[in-house]
Amino acid sequence: MEEEKKKNHIVNHFEKDSNCQIFNGSITGCVFAMPGSQVTQQAASKSPIANDTEEQEQPENTSQKREEKLTFFIHPSVDDTQEWQIHDEIARLVARQGIQEICKYLSQMSKDHKVLLPQNVEKAYKELVRLGMPDGDGYSLKTFTKYYKR
Predict the structure, then answer these.
(1) Which among 132, 68, 58, 59 has a CA at the least distance from the CA of 94?
(2) What are the sequence ranges of the domains in the chain?
(3) Residue 102 in contact with residue 94, Cβ under 8 Å?
């Protein structure tokens, strides 16, 4: 018990204004101690890395967990396991990029048979806004129509 207490207690004996850093434990359980400070570590219940690998190992059926409606852009040839991945890819695209990049990427996804783009520009625009694309300055229907290629 006394040994365990010593392992988890760090005393920094370096000069006050030195650039010293002390790390204790594995990379996931490291501690930063300022010069002249005392730090007491508490044991974590599980390693964050272990949680990540557990999540990756367990296949998720995301269609049952999601309340959001799947985008209609999904190409008919895409299997069920990739639908939500493509949906999320489009959502990230429209949240981070401009109209020109969005239209160019959607066109490329169409060539790769990941999405099937509608002929109706307004329908496509409304779906992208639903997925997170802004509809303010620079993201109007008129601008979108200029760059949209079916």
Answers:
(1) 132
(2) 2-42, 63-147
(3) yes
Closest C-alpha to 87, from 115, 110, 118, 61: 115
Q: What is the three-class DSSP state of 116? A: coil
Distance CA 35, CA 77 (A): 61
Residue 65 structure tokens: 């967990």
Each residue's pLDDT tens digit, 41-93: 665 555 555 555 444 444 455 445 778 899 999 999 999 999 999 999 999 99
The three-state secondary structure class of 33 is coil
Rg of the chain's alpha carbons, rounded to an integer? 25
Whole-number Å distance between alpha carbons of 102 and 139:
11
**pTM check: above 0.85:** no
Distance from C-alpha of 148 to C-alpha of 145, rounded to nearest angstrom: 5
| Burial degree of 126 (CB within 10 A; 0-12, 13-18, 19+) | middle
Q: Find all residues with CB under 8 Å of 97, minimum gap 6, and list them.
A: 105
Distance from the first to the final alpha carbon of the chain: 70
